[in-house]
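Lay summary. Proteins are chains of building blocks that fold into shapes, and those shapes determine what they do. In this project we predict the shape from the chain. Here is one chain we studied, written as its sequence of building blocks.
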Amino acid sequence: MDIRQLQYVVRLAETLHFGRAAESLHIAQSAFSTQIARLERQIGAQLFDRSANRVTITVAGEAFVRRAQEILAQMADASQEAKILHSMGQNQLKVGLFYESAGELTPLIINAFRQAMPHVELSFRELTMSDQVEALASGEIDVAFVRAPIADSRVQLLELFAEPRYVGLAKDHELADRKEVLTEDLVDQAFVVASPMAPPLWRGYWSFDDLRGGPGRVATAVDSVPQSLNAIAFQGAVDTFPGSAARLQRPPGVVYRRIADGTYSPSALATRAGERRLHVEAFRQVGKQLAITSLKVVPEAVPVVEAPPGTPRTA
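And here is the predicted shape, written in a compact code that computers can read:
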């Protein structure tokens, strides 16, 4: 039994005429009659009495038709609901922002998307170190501004640009009087580290675990950049940042020094793996285009392909 047979039996009950019922459904009468007979055999009951001059519905047929009408009505409601939900999904975009996001390029991307797709309603969520991937993978957000490296099969990254890395230091730190520092100056420092719930590769990259070959000295664990800055200013810890964060966020008590031999940090847009909705892809394309045409608004940024060797790649 299939939905088509239910539609056939309901139409025959309405017309009580095989020819008219078949014609209204745009099929041959012989095929229509075959389907009705097949359905009767499948359920083991005669639904219609047939004679040379008329068709009548049986008691069993009346009961079956009522149930078939209920099923078809429920399917129609479900179909309409699905269409509404699909439409809503195409008209809302939930954007996750992790701290400085894509620096000065961020508002350009958002405003350009608004102009390109004014019918799409945008909402925003501030992400933490712990939920920057989980919020995306679970569907709480549709697209996120993140920093590489992130290795998670549930998400897809579009790298926008790369920029130098800086270390955040307390103003009275022993390295604060230098214009630049080297990685060897930092590997033995007490680091602010991300919460254990943060993506492991990402967590290790920002605390130099990848360079020293394992965990180093830990000053404290945090779940947000403001928490990290407080630990730097008041606990003598150190942490590393992309150039945009060092430039746009300068709290009292914290100074930034460029890591002269450090790898460059890629900025990326993250979406769910396999995402195909048009408005999500449109956001990606806007970001990709502006990263080509307007990258000069982000000081020190370079196209990802021009980043120095050793810059972490996305997965």
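What the prediction tells us: The radius of gyration is 31 Å.
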